[in-house]
Amino acid sequence: MALLPILEFPDPRLRTVAKPVEKVDDRIRKLAKDMLETMYSAPGIGLAATQVNVHERILVIDVSEDKSDPHVFINPEIEVLDQETQGYEEGCLSVPGFFEEVNRPAHIRINAIGLDGEPYVMEPKGLLAVCVQHEIDHLDGKLFVDYISPIKRQRIRSKLEKQQRKRA
Ligand code: QAP
Ligand code: CO
Q: Distances from the Cα of 73 to the Cαs of 25, 60, 119, 157, in angstroms?
């Protein structure tokens, strides 16, 4: 059991583009387990490896009420199925205390590899679809605050920098 420290905006390491996982081995399975524990303990509904300063393409999500539906996505790839978008008030464990509305494609298909090393496909709906897109953004060095107005983003940056200075 290990809780991993979570990087916070505007840490430049959150801008790293993650590399594909080459082999699903015990190291990757341990990382996924530690990421799930870290996410549940936060508590959060999604966490990307980038946020724990591991720059490999792996993310964990559980949007259930009772931690009953953990998903691990390795090397996830997204396909947008139609033009429809949905707005959702997003947050992020790397942007603690701030929530803003973001619009994203509503209907997507995900191709990923599971912890067993086997590829799988899913068509997530609703919050799960939102969350998968938010987490894949992390693997590409993007954050939900990149979609909001520069004024709001700057305000969030200043507040978090101030908190981080107090803690350091
Ligand atoms: C991403 O985010 C997400 O600010 C996962 O004070 C969130 O788990 C995708 C959290 C919403 C779609 C919709 C954030 C916890 C958790 C905070 C999270 C906080 C405490 C965020
Ligand atoms: Co996030």
A: 14, 6, 10, 29
Inter-residue contact 106 to 86 (CB < 8 Å): yes
* Protein residue closest via CA to atom 13 of ligand 1: 90
Question: Looking at ligand 1, which atom is closest to the CA of residue 46?
Answer: 5
User: Ligand 2 centre from 93 Cα, in Å?
Assistant: 6
Report the alpha-carbon distance of residue 121 to residue 136 in Å, rounded. Answer: 15
Distance 12 CA to ligand 1 centre (A): 20
> Once rounded to an integer, what is the mean pLDDT over residues 1-28?
97
| pTM for the full predicted model | 0.98
Is 22 noted as a catalytic residue in this protein? no
Q: How far apart are CA 128 and CA 93, in angstroms?
A: 16
Strand stretches in the chain, DSSP E: 46-48, 58-61, 71-80, 85-90, 100-105, 108-113, 119-122
Ligand nearest, relative to CA of residue 136: 2
pLDDT mean across residues, the chain:
98
- Position 72 scores a pLDDT of 98
- The residue type at 95: V
Which residue owns the Cα nearest ligand 1 atom 5?
46
The tens digit of pLDDT for each residue in 138-147 reads 999 999 999 9
